[in-house]
Design goal:
The protein is mainly alpha-helical. The chain folds into three domains: 102 residues, Fumarase C, Chain B, domain 1, CATH 1.10.275.10; 248 residues, Fumarase/aspartase (Central domain) (Fumarase C, Chain A, domain 2); 65 residues, Ribonucleotide Reductase Protein R1, domain 1 (Orthogonal Bundle). Helices cover 59% and strands 5% of the residues. It is built from 20 helices and six strands. The strands form three sheets. Strands 1-2 form a two-stranded antiparallel sheet. A two-stranded parallel ribbon has the order 3-4. A two-stranded antiparallel sheet has the order 5-6. Helix 11 runs antiparallel to helix 12 and helix 12 packs antiparallel against helix 14. The longest helix has 38 residues. It starts with 23 loop residues before the first helix and ends with a helix.
């Protein structure tokens, strides 16, 4: 193998991971929010907005109101952060060996020789790196969730809800513990999943994104030492709120990341419910309840020409497991920090992108998979017609009600139906013979005699109509 072409030397460079390689198209929108260049761009944004805010609040002696052109010049720095800017920042960082300090120097280069040059020391004034980082990450994650992940997840839930409505009246045999059980409708089962997923989206939609800017140990020490007469608590609070975040007044050097743990737990829980959907659909496909449309020219198996594998749902399972593992790890590690600061969060947070990327990829796969499904009503009906034993439940329940109402001959209803059905092959005739031998009220007798596994679905359709959003 030593004489093989070295793949690491090929240009353009080859991605090590699947999100930036094979699956790039499905997750590319996250690059604008959760990539390393996105982090540095957001750091530029926070730094220049802090500069503008300090001037607007007259926070430091010697500052002055900025002109519209000066504000535009500052805000153009992150807006114009392109490939050349990324490369330039990288070159500065090679010297500083510090990414946030490289951001500071990058900005100072941009205002050198302008009317802002005399105010250049406002860049990163009284800040520790974590003042910039925590605000940057909060804005990045907020943008990724609200602009990319949440719209995709919402569209998925709408797809599931649409399937539920379309199939709300399609009877289906249930399987509790893997065995035949009280029938439901296909639509009602998907309504349950849509409802569960929707609750998690509501939680994500209400998420707070916290931020702080209060110095090296959260005391405003440098601020008050430099300019004691300024109300730095107000300057901090109004700045964080100006960015669209919730101000955290009590922190160490780092913002505590509790909000991140809360968010990642909800996203991971959404993923686990979606994993439940994927495995259920996989099972329904294996039972023949769904047929899958084959894409023209596609191959299901390299050896078995007849196969159409449920690969979208299997792909989703794998990616949801990876996503949930990453989100769980982030949530567990980010809420702890030794004393006032350690740097474990710095490395951990660089994996937020992969965590959301695998989730987004799974969402994309499930949506694609759902579009290939066609309900096989004939198979659903055949399964129901082969499972008349499920009517033991309504018959014994009707007998119980009749017994309570004083009808004679209704003793031991559960035990009698157990003897009739348990471990037995039961058909329509056996059920109707049993019902016919009971001296039930005429209305009850008629209702049970007309009942079939396919009609024994209770209020399933009504539940979809009334409670599915």
């Amino acid at each position: 193998m030593n004489d093989w072409t070295r793949l690491a030397d090929i240009t353009p460079s080859i991605a090590l991971g699947p999100l930036d390689g094979r699956y790039r198209g499905a997750v590319a929108d996250l690059v604008d929010h959760l990539s390393e260049p996105a982090l540095n761009r957001m750091r530029l944004h926070v730094e220049v907005e802090w500069f503008i805010h300090l001037c607007a609040k007259d926070a430091v002696p010697g500052v002055r109101p900025l002109t519209d052109d000066e504000v535009a010049l500052l805000r153009a720095i992150p807006a114009e952060f392109d490939a050349d800017g990324i490369a330039e920042h990288g070159e500065i960082e090679k010297v500083t060996i510090h990414d946030v300090k490289a951001v500071e120097y990058y900005i100072k280069r941009r205002i050198e020789g302008t009317t802002l040059a005399p105010l250049s020391e406002l860049v990163h004034f009284a800040c520790t790196s974590e003042d910039i980082n925590n605000l940057s990450y909060a804005l990045m994650v907020k943008g990724a969730v609200e602009e990319v992940w949440l719209p995709a997840a919402t569209a998925l839930v709408e797809d599931v809800a649409s399937l539920a409505r379309d199939a709300k009246g399609t009877p289906m045999l249930s399987r509790t513990h893997g065995q035949t059980a009280t029938p439901t409708t296909l639509g009602k089962e998907f309504a349950v999943l849509a409802h569960r997923l929707g609750r998690q989206l509501d939680r994500v939609g209400r998420q707070e994104y916290l931020g702080k800017i209060n110095g090296a140990t959260g005391t405003f020490g440098a601020h008050t030492a430099a300019v004691p007469e300024t109300d730095w608590i107000d300057v901090s609070k109004t700045f964080v709120e100006h960015l669209g975040l919730t101000w955290n007044p009590l922190t160490t050097q780092i913002e505590s990341h509790d909000w991140q743990a809360e968010l990642y737990a909800d996203v991971a829980r959404f993923g686990r419910i979606l994993h439940n959907l994927a495995t259920d659909v996989w099972t329904y496909v294996s039972l023949g309840y769904f047929a899958q449309a084959a894409a023209k020219g596609s191959i299901g198996s390299s050896a078995m020409p007849h196969k159409i594998n449920p690969i979208r749902f299997e792909n989703a399972e794998a990616n949801l497991e990876i996503s949930s593992a990453l989100l769980d790890t982030l949530g567990a590690t980010l809420v702890t920090s030794r004393m006032q600061r350690d740097l474990t969060d710095s490395s951990s947070q660089r994996n937020i992108g992969p965590a959301f990327g695998h989730s987004l990829l799974a969402i994309d796969n499930v949506r694609r998979g759902l579009k290939t499904l066609t309900v096989n009503e004939a198979q659903l009906a055949a399964d129901l017609d082969a499972s008349w034993e499920v009517l033991a439940e309504p018959i014994q329940s009707a007998m119980r009600a009749a017994s309570i109402a004083g009808v004679p001959g209704m003793e031991n209803p559960y035990e009698r139906l157990k003897e009739l059905t348990r471990g037995q092959q039961i058909d329509a005739q056996a059920i109707r013979t049993f019902v016919g031998g009971l001296e039930l009220p005429a209305e009850t007798q008629e209702r049970l005699a007309s009942l079939t596994p396919g009609s024994y679905v209770g209020l399933a359709e009504t539940l979809v109509d009334r409670f599915l959003r």
